[in-house]
Amino acid sequence: MHNPLRPALPLRLVDAPPAPSSTTPQAIIRVEDLSIVFDVPRGQVIAVDRVSLAVMPGEFVSLVGPSGCGKSTLLNAMAGLEQPFEGLVTVAGESMLGPRPDVGMVFQQPHLFPWKSVRRNIAHGPRALGKSKAEALRIADDLIEMIGLTKFANAYPHTLSGGMQQRVAIARALANQPRVLLMDEPFGALDAQTRAVMQDNLLELRGRINATIVFVTHDIDEAILLSDRVLIMSAGPGRILRDLSVGLPRPRSSAILTDPAYLALKRDCLDLIRSEGRKAFEQMETVA
Amino acid sequence: MSVGRRSRANAAGRLSVLVGVLSVPTFVGVWELIARSRIVNAVLFPPPSTVAVAVLDWIHSGQFFGDLSASLFRVTAGFLIGATGGIVLGVLTGEFRLVSSLLSPLFHILRPIPPIAFVPIVILWFGLSEAGKLFLVVWGVFFTVWLATHIGVQKVDRGLIRAALMLGTPRRQMLSEIVLLGALPYIVVGLRTAVSISFYTLVAAELAGAFAGIVYRIEIAQQNMQTGQVMGGLAALGLLSFVADRSFAAIAERAVWWR
């Protein structure tokens, strides 16, 4: 059967720009002593507990951890969708007081505007920022070509498959040319085959855009395959347990899945996550 | 065997189509027979032929179109005003908690009072003027549309709002596009319910005293013992209401074009 997700993107594979090793390494994202607390019916829950991290321009960083460890909350704080209880989140030197067009986000669900065609969904951001209709549509058409959906430019979201919808969501987030692209388990709702294709697409896409990417996932393979760095988070309250550099060469492909260096890294990650997951489970049991 | 079963199924299908086509003519025929057989009082229960003659007289006298346009104007104007108000306030109360705290308790107290119960006070306030009739229709339509919009706005997919926020959507566009279109499927259901409600309230408004209108004509005919005319008026009202509902359903289908 013809897979509509297959049309290989006409892109070159390009290595990610190395993290700047100049004399003044300036992080684009800074999280300092961040705590986020949620009110619940019986008191408060600490979702993120005194987390600090820095992401360099052009870096691809994954946040990995068990369900409910606060990784999505941490990402939402970088997006300006959650406000710190304590601490500070800055992007490009400015505090994230609310959503900002230079920080784009792709959610687990595509959340496309159902009343707009693919083209107009992607053109929404540039239009919202005051670009002319013609300019916005030109940007949209370029991105549609890049994600290989030219045939579907005028289709409505409900007529597309889940993978295609998520590609449109990525293109829509890129239309504002964000400096930072945040991705919250973007492939988590897709089947395994589609997810593999989407991961390849994202690796290719990365060569074309300059955005720094922070990627939340609970899939270790996905995190290692895509990232320069993997941050392992502990069970709630969320803390960063370990900061692992992925020294595997780029361009990468699924061939690294058998690489001994990869396997060692994966074993480390899994051990940490297993023990954390168990802790989280026990905590839940004692609460219940 | 399967062929036999299919042809039997086909025969049953044809039979029900035939019965469906004959349903209304048979009913009218039986009515005509009963009314003419003197089993019932033909003055109170006139045959369809008498009703048809009364309707033709109504049209020939020139009163019909005056009555029709008077009723149509009340329903249409009342619906448009009530629906617009309902949508605007529904978006405001659905979106802004402060506005909701201010208005929702009041609306929830007023909403369950049947609009017909307002006829006496409307007569005190507006006399027999058009304003009073519009008021009743607007009142009936407004609360239905307001509630549907209010609920629709609160049920707008939060993910869409967040996505729109991340793309830098300005506040005004957020309300006029994302929230309004996100709530549209609910609003359309409210509007369709309001179409029938506008006809109910029209009846109350015209019974309360008018100088033209389909229900007004029914009432005058009743006072003159013109039972045929009464039934003709009921048929006209039923037809009008039916056409309004069906046209609205057709419009609604296209209004939520992305489904």
How can the largest sheet of chain A be summarized?
A: 6 strands, mixed
The portion of residues assigned to helices of chain A is: 25-40%
What is the CATH C-level name of the largest domain in chain B?
Mainly Alpha
List low-confidence stretches of chain A: 1-24
Q: Give the CATH H-level superfamily of the domain at 29-102 and 178-287 in chain A.
A: P-loop containing nucleotide triphosphate hydrolases
N-to-C series of helices and strands of chain A? EEEHEEEHHHEHEHEEH
Q: For the record, give the distance between the C-alpha atoms at the N and C termini of chain B, rounded to a whole number.
A: 42 Å
Region (Disordered) (chain A): 1-24
Function (chain A): Involved in beta-(1-->2)glucan export. Transmembrane domains (TMD) form a pore in the inner membrane and the ATP-binding domain (NBD) is responsible for energy generation.
InterPro entries (chain A): AAA+_ATPase (IPR003593), ABC_transporter-like_ATP-bd (IPR003439), ABC_transporter-like_CS (IPR017871), ABC_transporter_ATP-bind (IPR050166), P-loop_NTPase (IPR027417)
Keywords (chain A): ATP-binding, Nucleotide-binding, Transport
Verbal overview:
The complex is a heterodimer of chains A (288) and B (259). Chain A is 34% helix and 22% strand. Chain A has seven helices and ten strands. Chain A has a six-stranded mixed sheet, with helices on both faces. A four-stranded antiparallel sheet of chain A has the order 2-1-4-5. Chain A has a domain of 184 residues: Rossmann fold, CATH 3.40.50.300. Chain A is of the alpha/beta class and 288 residues long. With 259 residues, chain B is mainly α. Chain B has two domains: 40 residues; 212 residues, MetI-like (MetI-like fold, Orthogonal Bundle), CATH 1.10.3720.10. Chain B is built from ten helices and no strands. Chain B is flat and about 75 Å long. Chain B starts with a helix and ends with a helix. The interface between A and B is medium-sized, with 28 and 19 residues.
